[in-house]
Design brief:
alpha/beta; Aspartate Aminotransferase, domain 1; seven-stranded mixed sheet; three-stranded antiparallel sheet; 16 helices; globular; binds pyridoxal-5'-phosphate
């Protein structure tokens, strides 16, 4: 028997004939388990119907999303254009923000709230406060950790925690004193204790506000139970009737136990620019910067330069915008009251948080009522259930259309509800 010559050549994988059954089998995309932990987007149904109506030519009055419809002040846009024309401004920029912008944020905290911040270690620029909050959750939380989140909830407050692999416990936030005592109770009874407590006053969606002593008590609780505070002060600039929203960072000892987010989106009408700030505890700012270093390359420099100008010279424009929201608030509150709805005028934010009145509340979920208003009145609003179960029975109306359109919205809602009432009444006896 002759021996076969040994070859060192690796065996070629056998070229398989295409298997038609394999080709036709649906391919299972291996989406990460965390995506499955996110619920379906509750506003999707409303948005789909709104687009369908608009495509069919309907003039829908959109009070759904808190998306400012007014432009930023001209000088801010001019500065953006000027800075964009400078060829030096188009490279990557530092991902914690350029120093002059961080300095401007620190100086604003000082003049507005009396808070001294080191712009190098205690201030960070992020691509909107939502983005900053999500990355902060990655820096603070992981599997096995728990965060307390206000309810009803701005969805990112819950789901950024979930995406970080941690658990979110929602506590009713509409009575701030009760919220504090529930936080204390949760810390006493939950093991391991919550690691993070998120606060958001003025609160989206309920418009609840607090005074400075709330934050003093919160810092005391944070020290007693060892949780870290994340304050979302997105609506700092939109306050009414002389009310000023306090900053968490102004509470004694706050810098050692927490951070705070602020944004250019709301008061400055710069929502699409994606400019937010995180300020406070240096160690956590450093951890957030570390996470961000792996996710983004910083903000377009001209946007940062224009934001410096906005912070420096935009005060009057912000106040004017707040007065505009206040007038819209008054128009909408008065109109809905004329329809017999019980509405409390908010002291801050760009929303009304409204209890669905009877008889509708016992007949419709907030989602069905919102869909009905869109279908029959051509008015889009956010159903309270979109902010979690604690929001059921309510609607959130954003003050993002002008006063005439708000009056028109009230008329259309009134007519739509009246037509349903008439249709439900028994026909008069002959
Ligand atoms: C409570 C709250 N936080 C954060 C944001 C997002 O702000 P930004 O545009 O800075 O990401 C919003 C926007 O609606 C909000 O309501």
């Amino acid at each position: 028997m002759t021996e076969q010559p040994q070859s060192n050549k690796p065996e070629e994988p056998e070229l398989q004939q295409p298997d038609p059954s394999e080709q036709n089998r649906p391919f299972a995309v291996p989406v990460a388990e965390r995506v499955g932990r996110l619920p379906p987007y509750l506003f999707a149904r409303i948005n789909a119907l709104m687009y369908e109506k608009r495509r069919a030519g309907a003039d829908v009055i959109d009070l759904g999303m808190g998306n400012p419809s007014d432009p930023p002040a001209d000088f801010i846009v001019d500065k953006l254009a000027e800075a964009a024309r400078d060829p030096k401004n188009h490279g990557y920029s530092p991902n914690t923000g350029i120093r002059n912008l961080r300095r401007e944020v620190a100086s604003r905290y000082y003049t507005r709230y009396g808070v001294s911040l080191d712009p190098d270690s205690e201030v960070l620029v992020c691509l909107g406060s939502k983005d900053g909050f999500s990355h902060l959750c990655l820096a603070l939380l992981g599997p096995g950790d728990t965060a307390v989140v206000p309810a009803p909830s701005y969805p990112a407050h819950v789901y950024a925690v979930v995406l970080a692999g941690a658990n979110a416990i929602t506590l009713e936030a509409t009575q701030p004193e009760k919220f504090l005592s529930n936080i204390a109770y949760t810390c006493q009874h939950l093991f391991p204790r919550p690691k993070v407590v998120v606060v958001n006053y003025p609160h989206n969606p309920t418009t609840t506000v607090v005074e400075a002593d709330f934050y003093r008590d919160l810092v005391r609780l944070a020290r007693r139970y060892g949780f870290f505070v994340v304050s979302d002060l997105a609506y700092a600039d939109i306050t009414f009737d002389g009310y000023q929203a306090p900053s968490f960072l102004a509470a004694p000892g706050a810098l050692s136990v927490g951070v705070e987010f602020t944004t250019m989106s709301k008061g400055y009408n710069m929502a699409g620019w994606r400019v937010g700030y995180c300020a406070g505890n240096a160690e956590v700012i450093r951890a957030l910067a570390t996470v961000k270093a792996y996710y983004d390359y910083g903000m377009f420099r001209p946007v940062q330069i224009a934001s410096i100008m906005a912070l420096r010279h935009g005060h009057a424009a912000v106040q004017q915008q707040a007065r505009c929201y206040q007038r819209r608030r008054d128009v909408l509150v008065a109109g809905l009251r004329r329809l017999g709805w019980e509405v409390e005028p908010p002291r801050a934010t760009m929303f009304l948080w409204v209890k669905i009145p009877e008889p509708w509340a016992s007949q419709y979920s907030s989602m069905d009522f919102a869909m009905m208003l869109l279908e029959r009145a051509d008015v889009a609003v956010s159903p309270g259930a979109g902010f979690g179960p604690a929001g059921e029975g309510h609607l959130r109306l954003a003050l993002v259309e002008n006063e005439n359109r708000l009056r028109q919205a009230v008329r259309q809602i009134g007519r739509a509800l009246q037509s349903i009432r008439l249709a439900a009444e028994p026909a008069p006896a002959e």
